[in-house]
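Anyone opening a protein record will find just a pair of labelled lines. A complete record is shown below as an example:
=====
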Amino acid sequence: MGGYVRSSALAPIRSCVDRFGGRIDRVLRHADLPLEILDRPELPLPLKDHYAVLHAAARETGSAQFGAEMGALARMSMLGPYGSGSLSAPSLFAAIARANVTLNRMMQTDTDLVLFRLRDRVKWSMIFHTRGTEGRYQNELLAMGYQLDLLRHFLGASWRPACIHVRTSSRSDVATLERLLNAPVRASQDTPGIEFHRSLLSAVQPLTCAENRPPVEQGDMPAANDLVSMTRAAIRLELVRGRPSVDAVAARLQMSRRSFQRRLSTKGTSYGKLLEDTLLQEAQTLLGLGQRIGEVADRLGYSDHAHFTRAYRHWSGLSPRQNREMLFET
């Protein structure tokens, strides 16, 4: 069914669209996503929807190389614990290894970061397994922007790789990409990636104050081809609009309602059960963050405070107020 990416990846897209004078609300509407998702950076977003956002952003800004425009501004530090964890590694080799290993767990699934050996050089590539067309190309360009930023953190802001491989056959595209990425670009139909001399992997952490610590863990990303975890993710995403219907969640997963419910039944569960479980988890999270009970009720699509309180007591055996008092008691 495809991979997922953290919704935090939308923030730099918004910044770049704004920089071009475009409107992010139109971009998200084209991708069938609510504007409010920008306020939920922790949510898993289907990678196909991320492709759609990038494609729509390219159209909105009139930039055929929008991914590279973003890539020129991309900073690993924008990617939360995933980015900061990679940047704090003791050497470039350790940073690349850490980024490769933690990508699917922390930031983006159905995607692999791979370091290929090419005689005295290496090629660092991000390989996307989720299908896509124009949006996937933009995502490849954006990914190389983040990779370049990590490399330049260790090798210097003006460092240039031997070459960057991209999927294009246009000479004008190559010239534009070379300007945006400040690096030689080679048109290729092979796996895109950044090629540089293998000896550079030994470069050490340039910041003496950097802590050599493993990245902070985030909530689990949906497991590949696990319908239950993907359903939970789709419910959380649709909750941004309001109470999600079974039809909306099935459509988000690109399934008919009947097929969706039948497949959940074979897993020993139902949409109603998963909706209740997800609502309880979201409610507990929001209450733990100190949000008022009325605000949590609104966020979860309840028409009034009393309905939410009854539902919460049914789920957990406690009222929301009792649960919050337990969370904050000293």
